[in-house]
Design goal:
Two copies of one chain form a homodimer.
Chain A lengths: L1 E7 L1 H4 L7 H11 L3 E8 L3 H14 L2 E5 L10 H8 L4 E3 L1 H13 L6 H5 L2 E3 L3 E3 L8 E6 L2 E6 L3 H19 L4 E10 L3 H13 L5 E8 L2 E10 L2 H18 L4 E4 L4 H11 L4 E5 L5 H7 L8 E7 L2 H8 L3 H7 L4 H14 L4 E7 L14 E7 L4 E7 L4 H23 L3
Parallel strand pairs in A: 1-2, 1-3, 3-8, 13-14, 13-15
Antiparallel strand pairs in A: 4-5, 6-7, 7-8, 9-11, 9-12, 10-11, 15-16, 16-17
Helix pairs in contact in A: 2-7, 10-15
Organism (chains A, B): Phaeodactylibacter luteus
Protein name (chains A, B): CinA-like protein
InterPro entries (chains A, B): CinA (IPR050101), CinA-like_C (IPR036653), CinA_C (IPR008136), CinA_KH (IPR041424), Competence-induced_CinA (IPR008135), MoaB/Mog-like_dom_sf (IPR036425), MoaB/Mog_dom (IPR001453)
Chain lengths: 416, 416
């Protein structure tokens, strides 16, 4: 069974918002054994939407549409869908009641624009939207299915999980498809390819390997297709195991795992608390760590010491070290680690000081010069990163490396 | 002149990475008066790529392709492009030298996979890639243009700016198109629509208004099309001015501005320094603020006080207040503001304490209960947010609201 994804919105074509819905939908469809034949973005006007619908129906069994259902005037989707499938828009009492109820719960009254939202195609099955006011719509059309959902990500996700995926699974017989993804940090794509070249060459044709690099991490995805799901999964699993054994030093997890979660598990298993001291990353590493639910079990907190005064005041970094070596130096990040354990708490600390850019560089220490340190009361290890010129990318790259460094430190100094 | 964007990669179809390139390319093309007719994602295999190329050429004058040029084995793009345009792959000495040089600079040797990267279609003009090893390719095909670029965002961006956009502008005559975007915070889409309904109804047909809501902010985009660029821009500008005047209390900026930058300008103009105290947001607000270049001119730093001990130790929050009202309370965030100004520094402070979820909720204080406070030495204002159940979204939503609250505080208490 093949699906085709259409995102409607001029705001995507002109680049004002990024289409994150398609990625999430692609993941969910794949997990459920459905293949995505294509993804396309159509403008907010009739002709473009019709062309995308034609294209989707020529390539797939189900066309899933997001966007173009909001309460404001830039939306034409519903009219086009009704016309395309031979229906017409009628005022739908139940939808209007549900809109009214939704606003009553918020202590507000619906507007006239919300009233217009209650006009629905008379040939669509309406799908209940638990997270917002616009219901989903399910059309049967020439043996195929058209589904329309709001573009707001959490509304779309709720509709997909509760309504759309169960209906698709009931309507279409599925092919067997299996994925496994190994997550690595700290080694580049080409070096990894060299280390596994011989294994890769012996992969059977129905199992493919893809390299997905991103900011200091590379994901290795094995995808298999076959007749029988159970035996296919076993086969892909056994290949994943072989690749993982080969790359045991750099694989930190699988699937949708994240390095910050992997590091969190290491800390928690060892009964350690972490504290952070960030200068140029401004809180980003704390944010990464605390984006993991339950991180309070191993994260004390930290200091964002953006100014030199604060490095002294909160962490006790010595003014001599700062003036002699500069804030971006190995000596300062080492003192920051010691000061963090002393004044903030925790058994293990990360410290970061660098020049994120675009300003602040010198010939000696150009933009992208970043010192990292990870340590405990006994030992501190420091690392000099030479990142690029882009502030945002430097911050992200530094965050990923800080977590990588922390993981290596924990594995070396706290072996299980 | 119309462009069509193709992203190549199974990893996008199965949702393992999000296509951010297309959004950036759409922005740049629009800024240069070129329209994006569609965006599509094709799988890593010949048939799918060929179909996307056909589709693109039927809809646009230039087809811009990203992805499928890396050094590993999952790439077929180059072969398909050569075949499609009637060329063949030949070893390209100069490209190989540039790859070798690139690795020499890193103190490493190219691998065999990198050598394969030096095979290039003999009918393509090669575009210099300053940020990586894979050059871009420019094909002329039946009066139209096909361009292939690597998928790594900073390589693609560099190629677009330095090579592709200048060539496209030289080759195609441009239509006049003008955009203006007003950025608002703190008010929902429907309420904004009500406040500007009469203005919106008098917009001429060649100027459109779109509402782009996202996590507590709504962008209002005016797009005009016309014959003469100068008069069109003047017309769109004058409409933007009318909408901005109507919404003066909630518009914080225009275009690609960000709330954290707008707040930064207010602080800097007033000679104020900000400090932050974050519990449930774990450093995210500090990260937002320091994502703006030059933020050290108005941001001192802050404390990530994830544990209750740290709220006492770093900020002097009283143990009585914590035990009497709980860490997530108006009383605690008020003491956090006072303690931040006292112990961290700055004239203005933000404090945040809440339950980001998914765990940690109680009947009294369910997940999504978040207290915010902004204050100076004289006055502190607190706000209770009732966010949702999703941790990541709660953190982002809280960050956006904290900045909104700070902006309102600055405008009220430090009028220019």
């Amino acid at each position: 069974m093949k699906a085709y994804l259409i995102t409607i919105g001029d705001e995507i074509l002109i680049g004002q918002i990024i289409d994150t819905n398609s990625a999430w939908m692609g993941q969910q469809l794949n997990l459920n054994g459905m293949q995505v034949a294509g993804i396309t973005t159509a403008p907010d006007e009739e002709q473009g939407i019709r062309a995308a619908l034609q294209e989707g129906l020529s390539k797939a069994d189900a066309v899933l549409i997001t966007g173009g259902l909001g309460p404001t005037k830039d939306d034409v989707t519903k009219k086009v869908l009704a016309g395309f499938t031979g229906g017409r828009l009628l005022f739908h009492e139940e939808t209007y009641r549900s809109i009214t109820r939704f606003f009553e719960q918020l202590g507000r009254k619906p507007t006239e624009a919300h009233r217009l939202q209650a006009y629905m195609p008379d040939n669509a099955q309406l799908l209940r939207n638990r997270m917002g006011t616009a219901p989903g719509m399910w059309f049967e059309h020439g043996g195929k299915v058209l589904v329309s959902m709001p573009g707001v990500p959490y509304e779309m996700k709720s509709l997909m999980k509760e309504e759309v995926l169960p209906r698709l699974k009931a309507q279409f017989p599925l092919r067997a498809i299996a994925h496994r993804t190994l997550l690595t940090s700290g080694t580049g794509e080409s070096r990894i390819a060299e280390r596994i070249a011989d294994l890769e060459d012996t992969l059977p044709p129905h199992i493919k390997l893809a390299y997905l690099p991103n900011l200091g991490q590379v994901r290795l995805r094995l995808s298999g297709e076959g007749a029988d799901l159970a035996s296919l999964e076993q086969e892909v699993d056994s290949w994943a195991k072989r690749f993982r054994e080969r790359l045991v030093d750099i694989v930190f997890g699988e699937g949708a795992d994240r390095l910050q979660a992997a590091v969190g598990r290491l800390l928690q298993e060892r009964g350690l608390f972490l504290a952070t001291a960030e200068s140029c990353t401004g809180g980003y590493v704390g944010h990464l760590i605390t984006s993991v639910p339950g991180s309070s079990a191993y994260y004390t907190g930290g200091a964002v010491v953006y100014s030199n005064e604060l490095k002294q005041k909160l962490l006790g970094v010595s003014p001599q070290t700062l003036s002699q070596h500069g804030a971006v130096s190995e000596e300062v990040v080492r003192e920051m680690v010691a000061g963090t354990i002393e004044h903030i708490g925790g058994q293990v600390a990360i410290a970061i000081s660098g020049i994120a850019g675009p300003g602040g560089g010198t010939p000696d220490k150009p933009v992208g010069t970043i010192w990292l340190a990870v340590g405990n009361r006994q030992v501190t290890e420091a690392l000099l990163l030479r990142a690029g010129k882009d502030r945002e990318k430097n911050i992200q790259y530094t965050g990923a490396h800080a977590l990588h460094l922390l993981r290596q430190f924990l594995l070396r100094h706290y072996p299980q």
